Amino acid sequence: MKNWKLAAGILAAAIALSPGAASAASASVIQLNYKETSLGRSQVVTSGTTLVPLQQLAQTMGYALTWNQSTRSAKLIRPGREVALTAGTVSATVDGTAASLTKAPHILKGKIYVPLVSAVSLLGGKTVYDKDSGSLNIVDELRYSVASAQGRTYWVSQKNGNVFYSISASGKPVLIGELPFADLIYTHGLEVKNVGKGTELLLLTDNHYAMFQDISNGYQALIQDGTIVKQMDYHYNIKSYIKAPLLKTPQIYMTDGAGVQYINADGSLGKLFDLEAITGIEGQYTIEYAAKDIILARFMTNTQLYAINTASGTGINLSAQLISAGDRKEWDRADGSDDFYLSKMLVLKKREGNLMTFTYATLPDGKVKTVTYTVGSQ
User: Fold this and answer.
1) Are residues 158 and 219 in the same domain?
2) Greatest pairwise CA separation for the chain in angstroms
3) Is the pLDDT of residue 18 over 60?
4) Which of 107, 111, 222, 270 could cross-link with 53 by S-S, CB 3.0 to 4.6 Å?
5) Mean pLDDT over residues 274-281, rounded?
6) CA 11 from centre of chain
7) Distance between CA 372 and CA 101 in Å, rounded?
């Protein structure tokens, strides 16, 4: 097996469409389960047939794809289904049974393209055309997402939460567990982080806006050599507001909104920080920064920002310490469900060594002030 991009590039030099044989489809939209995908921007139409990049279609429908340059063939795998096809021929197989495409796959723009409707059918879905909107919808009930790390591949069904694992993109998926949901309304993105040798952190997340609220949901699973050793999930619903960019977090962790589980560099479980016990306040917290020595956690009911010293396991209310006594008269009444307060709250702007720089705005005039905090000072 060779790298997909390299193989496609080599093939592109050998096979090409004649000039003018294909054209971009300008106005049509391609959806997956009635949510727009990027396929519409990549499609071309030739002789009345819509063609899309195979690799992009495979990713959209949750398939791992491998390419064999010597046979010019592709193998696509997801739980319960394996599809094989070859450039230049309409012949294909589904789970070893003969099948066919309406047109042979061929190379265009350095990528292998396939006829959308018949390719979707091979992959276990169906297509529905909406004449009113001019959009083509791919219906895929199992809704698998796929991602890889360290040569290993993971699939998650957003229909039932099943998690599958394979030691390679071409290996047979093995069921290793499930995430705690029955069926997700919104499409969640899947990411797999390389934590350490033989260990990955699987993240299935969704962030969307609805009814003036920013809604975030996430499911996390720490997986070591194909075994799930820890799971956590969070569900946030906060007032929508223009957010200040957060600093990059150097520490890998899991959270459920009430606790934070650190992951060590070797992939093993690190310290578990009970935010409610440390702060003495029950409720949900969002994590705005995490490093080896400190956690910044914001209590969602109001705007209070807490610093957790990871060595001692103690916490301090930074909002109370860093906002001046005069300004505190207004900030003590701050409400985490009011976007007027949320856009002015204490926010980390930069860190240089142990010195952390924050800004906040006074109420109600909005004058921005800069304050600092030294990590370890509590």
Assistant:
1) yes
2) 77
3) no
4) 111
5) 96
6) 31
7) 64
| Encoded tokens for 226 | 């194909």
- Which structural domain range is residue 161 located in? 142-240
In this predicted model, what pLDDT tens digit does every residue of 95-119 receive, in sequence order? 999 999 999 998 887 789 999 999 9
Same domain, 250 and 357: yes
* Strand order across the 213-224 sheet: 189-196, 199-210, 213-224, 227-239
Residue 162 C-alpha from the chain's centroid: 17
Assess whether 8 and 132 both reside in one domain. yes
Q: Which residue has the tokens 């699973």?
A: 221
Strand 152-157's sheet: what is its strand order? 144-149, 152-157, 162-166, 174-178
Distance CA 31, CA 132 (A): 14
Q: Is the pLDDT of residue 251 over 50?
A: yes
Q: Band of the pLDDT at 174, cuts 50, 70, 90?
A: very high
The gap between the terminal CA atoms of the chain, to the nearest Å, is 55
- Round to whole Å and give the CA distance between 258 and 232: 10
User: In whole angstroms, what is the distance from residue 348 CA to residue 332 CA?
Assistant: 20
pLDDT of residue 10 exceeding 60: no
Give me the number of domains the chain comprises.
3
Instruction: Tell me what pLDDT residue 378 has.
Output: 64
Helix, strand, coil distribution of the chain in percent, nearest 5: 15, 50, 40
In angstroms, the CA 169 to CA 2 distance is 12
Residue where a domain terminates, one of 89, 123, 139:
139
For the question of whether the overall pTM of this predicted structure is more than 0.85, the answer is yes
Residues in contact with 162: Cβ distance below 8 Å, sequence separation at least 6, in sequence order = 79, 156, 175, 177, 178
Token pair of 9 as six digits: 């590039």
> For the residues of 266-305, what is the DSSP string, one character each?
TS-EEEEEEHHHHHS--S-EEEEEE-SSEEEEEETTS--E
